[in-house]
Design goal:
single chain; alpha/beta; Rossmann fold; 6-stranded mixed sheet; 6-stranded parallel sheet; Phosphoketolase; Transketo_C/PFOR_II; Probable phosphoketolase
Length: about 800
């Protein structure tokens, strides 16, 4: 049975406001002359947007358009561009009239034409890229290089002046905007949310960010939901619900929504101008009240719903099909202009309809009366320094991390919670940097043993308080610890905070850092492109602490066991990625200090939060971390000779088990020579030709030998080590143990046994791979196997590991 399609609604007012504008805020603040000029400026923006998509020559149509002047491959997205430039045009007005410090984030994917056009017209683009000058020749290059090999992409990529948000992956514009507003009291971040983007999960959750703004010390975010009705070739949900339902949705989120809906340019310009004036006034009133009293309260911030046709001002119909106001306007409305004379003529008519001869002078520059509409200097959206945050960045004041370490006399004799001293260190970093450093985490900072940070800053909370909240909840409207159970939103806040020149630290459970896999991808790609742009100033690194790790998730089970984020990180550019696996407190502190001081990286630190043996005093830890890899002399007995075996480890639990296996082998075979290597900087395993931190082949061969067996006990999936080291001389003798998707509710040792990273398994692996022990080691191998079975039986009977395992220490 074929379903009957729904009948078209008869109440089109709920889904389409095309025609004369209707708006929540009434008024006509623009004089006739202002209206004429603003509309002309917007026409220029739209002309440039169409030119970017179609033209490679004849940019001002000073001669009849020819087929050979059209790009052979038509790329770009027209549909959202007019709305994007419409907002840009109106932001210029309020910035200039009120001397506002404002940046503009564009959420709609592939929306660059609508942003690049006004950015070029204000002059910023030509200042950064002089070859794209404000004349006919520069405009020709500007058009040609859009979505063209060797040119720029169709998003607001890092190459785009004034952008801190690419929009390549949808869903993060709101969280980026709020991150930019934190600790920026004079900044207003206007963010345009696209139709399709509004349907994503991360975007939906990020609307709650308005509950994390302190109007006393933070800037403001003005969200604009741009409803043009469609995504690629489908209607969008918020564009097809009633006005009442949409208004109630945003009132439920805690905003005061203001609507601007229509298509008639004259009335839409007046409505948008009146609405923006009102919203800026509301923001200033909220801030003035909060700042004059010092009382941080949670207001209803304004937001705007802008409903305009998709492909506004474009062809109404092409080949008998509706285009303007329909999904067919999404990308290139007419892709057949080179083959279809009717489409070619329609394109020329479309371009000439904007009357470029009225907008640009004889040299091809925007005429002075329109140029005068743009702000000046760093007030221009494309030139605002907050969107090139490294220009504003100041180094952190850093306490001496050495003062927070653990002291002991001999390695592997005492235990400590690795992340707890880090929390004390971060506490003082926050104390010393009260206005440009924040800690982010999804309700897990206490769980991750970082709770010392609450001694100087509580968790930010400005919503309703209950009396019982005062008993241990650590909530405060003055807090600078940002906790929300949405890794997406937290990551977006942190990225926005870093991109506007500040510093941050993010901790999360290892299994659930995967929630931000694609956000990490996007940020790493952004950093990689920025490295190639001399005008982009250095920003602080994104620092991720991954804790509650796989080997101590024996109690939470299979769903909490996944160290695969490291595999994802390795996929990204070697120029921007760093992975550290410090095995104890002092090495973790050394690594954290280094990461907080660094720029332009994503630093991933893997360290479990539970109690672990401590191996290196502070001096040794600093030396070891500086090298990133090294021989532990105290755990080796091969000085002055070639080893029979290289035992290597990366990660806290794998290091413990590898050390225990080393002791077992030495006790059974006193003449056996074992070299013990620990890896803190994972990229040391790669050749220096592939990663800046990689070891040269000579150094690698010196450490790992060229022909001796290597047992490598690794924190993550074992194939990652093979992937990094596949070109090494001795790779054929490299045997890696790591997590293999085995385990559920176990004891810690039983989980290790199931994945064969335990001391017994790797001791038996060594016997199998040392030529002299393959036969002679049979009795020892049987002994180790029996011990392993005994440990598993004990765990299943008593629910815990045996005492000699739980309290193992280095015996020598």
């Amino acid at each position: 049975m074929v379903a009957t399609p729904p009948k078209p609604t008869t109440d089109i007012s709920s889904i389409s406001a095309f025609g004369t504008a209707r708006a929540t805020v009434q008024g006509s603040p623009l004089s006739g002359e202002e209206l004429r000029k603003m509309h002309a400026f917007w026409r220029a923006c739209n002309y440039l947007a169409v030119g970017m998509i179609y033209l490679r020559d004849n940019p001002l149509l000073r001669e009849p358009l020819k087929i050979e002047q059209i790009k052979k491959r038509l790329l770009g997205h027209w549909g959202s561009s007019p709305g994007i430039s419409f907002v840009y045009t109106h932001l210029n007005r309020v910035i200039k009239n009120q001397d506002l410090d404002m940046i503009y984030l564009v959420g709609p994917g592939h929306g660059a034409p609508g942003y690049l056009g006004p950015c070029y017209l204000e002059g910023t683009y030509s200042e950064i890229y002089p070859e794209k000058s404000e004349d006919e020749e520069g405009m020709k290059i500007f058009f040609k290089e859009f979505s063209f090999p060797g040119g720029v992409g169709s998003h607001c990529t890092p190459e785009t002046p004034g952008s801190i948000h690419e929009g390549g992956e949808l869903g993060y514009s709101i969280s980026h905007a709020y991150g930019a507003a934190f600790d920026n009291p004079d900044l207003i971040v206007t963010v345009l949310v696209g139709d399709g983007e509004s349907e994503t999960g991360p975007l939906a959750t990020s609307w709650h960010s308005n509950k994390f703004i302190n109007p006393v010390r933070d800037g403001a975010v003005l969200p604009i939901l741009h409803l043009n009705g469609y995504k690629i070739n489908n209607p969008t949900i918020p564009a097809r619900i009633s006005h009442e339902e949409l208004e109630n949705l945003f009132r439920g989120y805690g905003y005061t929504p203001y609507f601007v809906e229509g298509s008639d340019p004259e009335t839409m310009h007046q409505a948008m101008a009146a609405t923006l004036d009102h919203c800026i006034g509301e923001i200033k009133k909220i801030q003035q009240e909060a700042r004059s009293t010092g009382n941080a309260f949670r207001p209803r911030w304004p937001m705007i719903v802008l409903r305009s046709p998709k492909g506004w001002t474009g062809p109404e119909e092409v080949n008998g099909h509706k285009v303007e106001g329909f999904w067919r306007a999404h990308q290139v409305p007419m892709a057949d202009v080179a083959k279809n004379p009717e489409s070619f003529q329609l394109l020329e008519n479309w371009l000439r309809g904007y009357k470029p001869e009225e907008l640009f002078d004889h040299n091809g520059k925007l005429i002075p009366e329109l140029k005068d509409l743009t702000p000046k200097g760093t007030r221009r959206i494309g030139a605002n320094p907050h969107a090139n945050g490294g220009l504003l960045r100041k180094d952190l004041r850093m306490p001496d991390f050495r003062q927070y370490g653990v002291k002991f006399d001999k390695p592997a004799q005492i235990e400590a919670e690795n992340t707890k001293p880090l929390g004390v260190f971060l506490r003082d970093v926050m104390k010393w940097n009260p206005n440009n450093f924040r800690v982010f985490g999804p309700d897990e900072n206490t769980s991750n043993k970082l709770q010392a940070i609450y001694e100087v800053s509580k968790k930010f909370w400005i919503a309703e308080f209950f009396p019982e909240d005062l008993d241990g909840s650590e909530l405060s409207p003055d807090g600078r610890v940002m906790e929300m159970l949405s890794e997406h939103t937290l990551e977006g806040w942190l990225e926005g905070y870093l991109l506007t020149g500040r510093h941050g630290f993010f901790s999360t459970y290892e299994a659930f850092v995967h929630v931000i896999d694609s956000m990490f991808n996007q940020h790493a790609k952004w950093l990689d492109i920025c490295r190639q742009l001399s005008w982009r100033a250095d920003i602080s690194s994104l620092n991720l602490l991954i804790t509650s790790t796989v080997w101590r998730q024996d109690h939470n089970g299979f769903t909490h066991q996944d160290p695969g984020f490291l595999d994802l990180v390795v996929n990204k550019s070697a120029e921007v990625t760093r992975i550290y696996l410090p095995p104890d407190v002092n090495s973790l502190l050394s690594v954290a200090d280094h990461c907080l001081r660094s720029k332009n990286y994503v630093n991933v630190i893997v360290s479990d939060k539970q109690s672990h043996l401590q191996y290196m005093d502070m001096d040794a830890a600093i030396t070891h971390c500086t090298k990133g890899i090294g021989i532990w002399d105290w755990a080796s007995n091969d000085r002055g000779c070639e080893p029979d075996l290289v035992m290597a480890s990366a990660g806290d639990i794998p290091t413990l088990e590898a050390l225990a296996a080393t002791v077992m082998l030495r006790e059974e075979f006193p003449d056996l020579k074992i070299r013990f290597i620990n890896v803190v900087d994972l990229f040391k395993m790669q050749p220096d030709t592939e990663h800046p931190h990689g070891l040269s082949d000579r150094d690698f061969d010196s450490l790992f030998t060229i022909d001796k067996p290597i047992i490598f006990n690794f924190h993550g999936y074992p194939w990652l080590i093979h992937r990094l080291a596949y070109r090494r001389t001795n790779h054929k003798n490299l045997h890696v143990r790591g997590y293999k998707e085995k385990g559920n509710i176990n004891t810690p040792l039983e989980l290790a046994i199931q994945n064969q990273i335990d001391r017994y398994s790797i001791a038996m692996d060594a016997i199998d791979r040392i030529p002299s022990l393959k036969v002679a080691g049979a009795h020892a191998k049987e002994k180790f196997k029996n011990m392993q079975i005994d440990c598993r039986n004990y765990a299943h009977e008593y629910g815990v590991d045996k005492a000699d395992v739980l309290h193992w220490k280095w015996p020598y």
